[in-house]
Amino acid sequence: MEDFITLKGKRTLITAGTKGTGAATVQLFHELGATVLTTARTQPDYLPNNTHFVSADLTTREGCEAIVQAVQEILGGVDIIIHVLGGSSAPAGGFAALTDEEWYKELHLNLMPAIRIDRQLIPDMIQQGQGVVIHVTSIQRSLPLPEATTAYAAAKAALATYSKSLSKEISPKGIRVVQVSPGWIETEASIALAERLALQAGTDYEGGKKIVMDSIGGIPIGRPAKPDEIANLIAFLASSRASAITGTEYVIDGGTIPTV
Which of 109, 120, 56 is closest to 84 using CA atoms? Predict the structure, then answer.
């Protein structure tokens, strides 16, 4: 019987593939037969066999150019691009705490890498007449937390708008463009956050998770998503099973967004 999903032989670039959702996506794509190149600033302790790694800082133009060159030299082109890279280092304190420098950092982490890499790799996808681009955004684009994530949310909103516009331009040329919009994911960073909040509140890890969930208005399923669950959705959308899907957003947040 044919596997429901296979990515055998698909040349795939996955950014930020050494931790959390990125690492889970790299592992799953490897298992599904893809030829994967991933990137981060530092070499990880573990990668699946035959997974290619290039160290680069994608918040810079030079880092993005290095990855594009690696894709061409190592993979000989690309069939699937998955932009996982994202995050925030902005301080708490609302809009007034966000200096120009903080805004630039959020935009250069959450928006510009996708724009720079797409601009250089998509022309070859168009020439070959097929490809998939997946942008990992965030529910915070429509549900921002003003105390700490205004700039991050705005950058992800810009990424979502860019992704939609890109899909309208290149889908007629055979390239599908899709957004995956997660809520809170139980990654290494979010575990550390919950543990820190638990320590401050004098409770345990589950209590720390509840503090985070309450801060975003609750998660109806009662827990954050696992990185593997995000990776499963990404793999489906990248596969031929999703061949009619483009130009849309898939929210995976356990029901966090309270409106239709």
Answer: 109
Backbone angles phi, psi at 157, to 5 degrees: -65, -40
Q: Which residues of 159-169 are buried (b: 16+ CB within 10 A; e: fewer)?
A: bbebbeebbee
- CB within 8 A of 80, min separation 6: which ones? 7, 10, 11, 12, 13, 34, 131, 132, 133, 134, 238
**pLDDT tens by residue, 204-243:** 999 988 988 888 889 999 999 999 999 999 999 999 999 9
Same domain, 140 and 168: yes
Strand order through the sheet with 80-83? 52-55, 35-40, 11-15, 80-83, 131-136, 175-182, 249-252
pTM to 2 decimal places: 0.95
* Residue 257 belongs to a domain: no
Structural domain span for residue 219:
186-224
Confidence band of 145 (pLDDT split at 50, 70, 90):
confident
| Residue 143 one-letter amino acid | L
Instruction: Please state, in angstroms and rounded to a whole number, the distance separating the CA atoms of residues 27 and 197.
Output: 30
**Is the separation of the CB atoms in 182 and 21 below 8 Å?**
yes
In this structure, is residue 255 part of a structural domain?
Answer: no
Tokens 């947040």 found at: 253
Q: Where are the alpha helices (DSSP H) in 39-187?
A: 61-70, 100-110, 112-128, 150-170
Domains contained in the chain, number: 2
Residue 243 tokens, joined = 């061949």
- Contact between 7 and 231 under an 8 Å Cβ cutoff? The reply is no
